[in-house]
Amino acid sequence: MSAASASGAGNGSSAGSSTLPGDPPGGRRAAWVWGIGIAVYFVAVIFRTSLGVAGLDAADRFHIDASALSTFSILQLLVYAGMQIPVGLLVDRLGTKKVLTLGVVLFTVGQLGFALSPSYGAALASRALLGCGDAMTFISVLRLGARWFPARRGPLITQVAALFGMAGNLVSTLVIARTLHSLGWTATFAGSAMAGVVVLVLMLLFLKDHPEGYEPPPVEHAGVSYVRKQIAAAWREPGTRLGLWVHFTTGFPAMFFLLLWGLPFLVEAQGLSRSTAGELLTLIVLSNMVIGLVYGQIIGRHHAARLPLVLGTVGTTTLLWAVTLAYPGDRAGHAPMWLLIVLCATLGACGPASMIGFDFARPANPPERQGTASGIVNMGGFVASMTTLLAVGVLLDATGDNYRIAFSSIFVLEAVGITQILRLRARAVRRERERLVASRVEAVHVPA
Fold this sequence. Notes:
The chain is mainly α.
């Protein structure tokens, strides 16, 4: 989402700052158009996370073990992460509507195919197709918000987009989980696929890339040299790389839990019923939605709060995972309910913290490179989640379903991510200040 920058992308400080030259006006029309894009992302997240509440059912349906079950989500995330830079380039080149249209078609066909898959192989292919379509949604929604709202609204708009994504996750935990057991596999997944058809029609009828009079500058021919130049220029910016590592480190501790391993962990390792486990997963989603709004408001008013929020979130979630896994008990160490509640409530901060990664990349890159930079950042959390999904599945099979050992892989990735964040933070802040000074000087010389 992000044209010129984060709340401070162009002005650097408070949310109440004046609109920058060339900023789009926002308003009701912007909210309506952006809302259609958000509806697309909402449906994509429902499809993406629907396997998280159907993991045990999928294992029974396709007669697979933990490693094979984790392959569903790993393949989906592998496709998603691998598509981020190509999608960013496509959005910069073609605009939002064309890319979103292709994405909706792909993830709807993927969800329907998953409903009708007669075998494990066919189901894998359907999840890969779904991941490909899903990959085209979030970056497009960020771009759409940047084209319709002033740059100073960037942090809040990003967090609100993520909030509606978590609302899609809430639908999975509350609706998909229940209909799965009342209507069955095929009816549940095929019925949910119809939501894709609805948002496709809305998008084709009403969505526009930008308001009248705010056309983006023309993009050069999208040849190999253009692609190479876009990626290289975005990657050279310390803010882009810092954004990637922020997304990597903050996003995965909750994402892998919600996407697949949360329900099995709570049911098999902690001895909870499915309904209680579902309530804890719902708590993560609700906490995410509340914290997302709080983080968006804080960053919009205090741009310097970005890194403290990131480091505070990482430190707290890592500590709670350590306490939960180390809690004395039989085998996996059953934790008391109060601790699981605190853990799940805190995991809700992971998604909002990962969105801060875009607030580092946004001011580091000009508008014509925002899609590419966002694609690079968005790879982070999904690569980390994919790695954790694989590690947990392999370790569960290798240790006889010892969740304490399997989930300890979290700490390895956290250590890698924190190291990179601390290494890049000073360079990114210094570079951002340089660009801010340059943009202010340029604004002074803009003719009235």
